[in-house]
Amino acid sequence: MKKVLQTIIIALLMTPFFVFAQTPYTVKIDVESNPRSPSFGDSFYVFITSSAINLKGLNTDWFINDKKVDSGLGKTDILVDSNFWGNNIEIRAETETPYGTVVSEKTFNLIGIEIIWEAETYVPAFYKGKALFSYRSPINAVALINSNNSTVSFTGNDSLNYKWSVNGKYDPGISGFGKNITQINTPLISPKNITISVEISDINSNVLGKSGVSILENTPQIIFYEDDPLLGERLDLAISDSFVFKNEEMTIKAEPYYFSILDLDYGYVETSWSANNKSLGIENGIRRVTFGNSGGVAKVSFSIQNTRRIIQSAVKNILLKDE
After folding, report:
1. For the domain that residue 164 is a member of, what is the CATH number?
2. Which residues contact 206 (CB under 8 A, 6 or more apart)?
3. Number of separate domains in the chain
């Protein structure tokens, strides 16, 4: 009887270890990316991570859209070029562990985001270029989504949340659902380059993509053009340093590129015309002046100063010559 009891006790003691030895050990391996929310057009890293096992000494096979692209011991990451693989990218990592092969998967549904911007600065009518940013000028920006991805669906911009940041700082005042168009007032003290970025997420807070643009601060400048009686303002022929009279008189217009539009409209600028260093006594704000050919050479100067944004100022000199 004693021998039977000993046998039963030994069997009971061994049972948990026997069961444990037969229970498979589950290893969790996750697939992540850097950046966490890549956009279409990006090259980004995809990597595996696990808190349960050391991945460095294990072999991993990598697949993109079911095509094997890499493998090796300790191969914990790969570089993915979305320009090559497209909007829909399916990642699969097969890692050989002591407990069996662990398959980890992640699908990236990428959208392309482009930020189009224009500063509220002056350029002439019919000017083909962009109104560039200058000191403390507001910037109008719009985030455009370019996606051929059928898995990214939304009904208009109102279903998307736009989180705008300026110089890396999130601005809730210009962000929100449907705010794909915004106006950014640049800070009083700011670096020469303004960085604008946007993160777009859906109504379920799933981040669809991010994009950013660096905008260089430009110095306002004055460019002279001849205002021809028949052809109008000759924007195709800027007057550089000198101009030779072709008739008894000529009209010059000074165009103050990249000055604040609002300040020009509301008269927060001071202008001055002079010839041979003597003021012409022309009313403030007048930018079109007619000169008669009096023979010889005349040094003509035009200056403009923004009284609200003091750094916005410019001076331009030209020589008017007789034939």
Report:
1. 2.60.40.10
2. none
3. 3
* Same-domain pairing of 102 and 12: yes
Listed in sequence order, the residues at least 6 apart from 54 whose beta carbon sits closer than 8 Å to its beta carbon are none
Domain of 70 in residue numbering reads as: 2-109
pTM of the model: 0.71
| Cβ partners under 8 Å of residue 194, min gap 6 | 133, 139, 166, 167, 184, 186, 214, 215, 217
Tens digit of each residue's pLDDT (9 = 90 or more) over 3-40: 544 544 444 444 444 333 333 567 899 999 998 878 88
DSSP string covering 123-149: --TT--S----BTT--EEEEEEEE---
Torsion of CA 229, 231, 235, 237, to 10 degrees: -90
Coil, strand, or helix at residue 1?
Answer: coil
